[in-house]
Design brief:
This protein is an all-alpha fold. About 90% of the residues lie in helices and about 0% in strands. Helix 1 runs antiparallel to helix 2. The two termini are about 20 Å apart.
């Protein structure tokens, strides 16, 4: 968290930019999960090896999205606190 509104806004922007750069990676992970599920549907013997990886990809994508969304949300809340502090100081 930043020590000022300006610093906090910079951190928020960095986090949002990071979210944007990870979108392609997350989409690729979901594509790999889909491919894995297709492999499972055509080759039932692959269930034991491919299914756990599909589940893990799905969990990782979901968790990363959640973490980044929560981080931006908390940073925005902190920016409000910083705004209040700066108003009181004036």
């Amino acid at each position: 968290m930043g020590d000022s509104v300006k610093e906090t806004e910079g951190i928020i922007l960095e986090t949002i930019n990071y979210q944007e750069t990870t979108k392609q990676d997350l989409m690729r992970a979901l594509q790999l999960e889909t491919m894995g599920r297709q492999i499972i549907s055509t080759n039932p013997a692959a269930v034991d090896t491919v299914e756990p990886k599909c589940l893990e990809l799905s969990r990782l994508v979901s968790h990363l999205r959640f973490i980044l969304d929560e981080k931006v949300k908390r940073q925005k809340q902190w920016r409000k606190v910083q705004n209040t502090i700066e108003k009181v100081r004036k």
